[in-house]
Amino acid sequence: MKVFDTITQLQSALRPMRDKKIALVPTMGNLHDGHIELVNIAKKHADVVVVSIFVNPIQFGVGEDFENYPRTLDEDCLKLKNANADFVFSPSIQEMYPVCPPNIQVLSGGLTKILCGKTRPTHFDGVGLVVSKLFNIVRPDVAVFGKKDYQQLAIIRQLNDELNFNVEIIAAQIVRADDHLALSSRNGYLTKEQRAIAPIIHQTLQKIASKILTAKIADYPTIIQQHHAELTAHNLKVDYLELYNDKLQAVQDGDRKLVLLIAVFVGRARLLDNLEIELTR
Predict the structure, then answer these.
(1) Known catalytic residue: 202?
(2) Where does the chain bind (R)-pantoate (predicted)?
(3) What is the pLDDT of residues 157-201, one digit of tens each?
């Protein structure tokens, strides 16, 4: 496995491999088993796997955790070597953004106005720009993203389609701990006590889903509000708890594929989760 920190180095290494199928796994590092599963999936769909490790400053808002976001490059590279990744791309901020803040924006449209976009209004524009740059730098045939960031995945699909990158986007299922907490780099922020209570996030989604399966559409908001109140009663700060169809549009009669999405502050960690629901009635 080779590690590059410049665009020129990476592109030079990839140039003779253009007759092979190339996969990209974009990450911000501090890798866990969920990231390694993305690499494993990429290896099944491509001949060459490139993993990017870049803590992207322009997707962090004022007062967020950019400075404190865990950076563990040596440990990450060891994990990626063991996972048989081919290349790691770990550029500096100056390498990715010679002008910072950048002059160019990639605005991500209406999908940024809901869910995470309500409290992080510039976040997905930063995601859109960095993913566009990575697609241009690597020119992958395939890119693998996790479903835990469901809204991000939807925006990247839209970006890929509307900017004609022609990358095959593969969505990977959420990898969970034994108690069903979704794996996240930010889980490392949790104290022992907070880690013990965090599984209530997924438990709440499961309870709501079981009720949605038999409820009328008019009852959905009441069900969600009841469980929102239960989370608050556990001293958790709920950023959002919402139900959409699988296209992240308002649920209408006739929709069969739905998704529950949640963001909760557990201490200083803002944790995301979601649960897809398929109605059979």
Answers:
(1) no
(2) 59, 152
(3) 999 999 999 999 999 999 999 999 999 999 999 999 999 999 999
